[in-house]
Amino acid sequence: MEKKIGKGIIRLKKGDITNEKVDAIVNAANSSLMGGGGVDGAIHRRGGRKILEECKEIVKNLPGRFLPSGKAVITSGGDLDARYVIHTVGPIWRGGKDREAETLRKCYISSLELGKNKGLKELSFPSISTGAFGYPIDLAAEVAINAVADFLKDNEMIVNFVLFDDRTFNAYKEKLNRVS
Ligand code: ADP
Questions:
Q1: What is the number of domains present in the chain?
Q2: Which of 22, 50, 90, 169 is the least buried, fewest Cβ under 10 Å from its Cβ?
Q3: For residue range 20-45, what is the model confidence (pLDDT) as tens digits?
């Protein structure tokens, strides 16, 4: 399903984000940038060692040697078909009283801004924070769709959400149907 929003398009797909042939895919990374499970593991497995080497270089120069949640950095796509990987760290769900929504929104906005500054035209996102980090899917879908829709008001871009399972896909579909 896809919908024109502002100057851009939001498209929802079901599948594996590592198959995307786009300017950049977004990784739901963890703060160490050293890889992990879920989508992070899949991206590093398919993308090869180059991505990890670049992540190591980046993390070396960060205060405290970690990437705080809500921030985003960019590496090459390594062996992936995507040209770049944007790594962002979602919030861990702690019941909703720890500014999780604000942080999750920042993940989307900072990834989109990074892509825009690189001149990228098409990005693909997974559902950040709704796996190991435990963010309730309906709430995360609302934040994700609203953040991207707000960005597209002023920016021309194609933004795909590549969602791994039916439940996640349906949650994002419901939110996209409501947005104008
Ligand atoms: P987080 O730690 O941010 O919660 P996870 O990787 O655990 O990240 O989960 C985020 C979402 O990514 C979940 O919906 C999970 O099912 C999904 N996911 C896992 N592997 C892939 C993949 N290869 N492509 C797209 N989505 C994936």
A1: 1
A2: 50
A3: 999 999 999 999 999 999 999 999 99
